[in-house]
Design goal:
The strands form 2 sheets. A two-stranded antiparallel sheet has the order 1-4. Strands 2-3 form a two-stranded antiparallel sheet. It has a single domain, classed as Alpha-Beta Plaits (2-Layer Sandwich), CATH 3.30.70. About 20% of the residues lie in helices and about 20% in strands. It binds iron/sulfur cluster. The site of iron/sulfur cluster has 14 residues, from helix 1.
Length: about 60
């Protein structure tokens, strides 16, 4: 089971992860991405992590 978290200090709020994986990520009131459902199944978490321009998505 994937353990996914967002490093808020790194996240620029670009919206890429939420646009690509709306089931898995959402933006909070600070315009930072948060994990909504890492097990949504509709998105590859490793791919999402690789696409984040600032490597703020951490999969372990
Ligand atoms: S892709 Fe990365 S920088 Fe952009 S909103 Fe998601 S976590 Fe933040």
């Amino acid at each position: 089971m994937a353990n996914v978290r967002i490093d808020e200090a790194l996240c620029t709020g670009c919206g890429l992860c939420t646009a690509n994986c709306p089931d898995a990520f959402e933006m909070n009131s600070n315009n930072k991405a948060v994990v909504k459902n890492a097990e949504s199944g509709s998105c590859d978490m490793n791919q999402a992590a690789g696409e984040c321009p600032v490597e703020a998505i951490i999969v372990s």
